[in-house]
Design goal:
Blueprint lengths: L1 H8 L5 H12 L3 H63 L1
Length: 93
């Protein structure tokens, strides 16, 4: 697969030319290589679709975590103020 995509990147005139070049190098029929290329392209398409769904899920999870962390931060601020005031009151007595 790598050889095929390298041939295309190196300026092969067409996909067929890239297939023939790979066939000459590895000695496997063009039809077999073509099938491998199609299978790889389908994998890439599925990966892109899944990555969009995964991105949406990750974004939702991060937003939920962000909300939870903001709430925890607010609680810690209130607790800090409470204990600071208690310490001041203790020193004044």
């Amino acid at each position: 697969m790598r050889l095929y995509f390298e041939e295309l990147a190196d300026g092969a005139s067409s996909k067929a030319a890239a297939l023939r070049a790979v066939e000459a190098v590895i000695g496997i029929k063009t039809s077999t290589i073509r099938n491998w290329v199609r299978a790889e392209e389908k994998k890439v398409d599925v990966a892109v679709e899944q990555s969009d769904a995964e991105k949406d899920a990750e974004l939702a999870a991060l937003r939920k975590e962000n909300t939870r962390l903001k709430e925890a931060n607010e609680i810690l601020k209130l607790a800090s103020a409470f204990f600071a005031q208690a310490e001041l009151d203790r020193k004044l007595k």
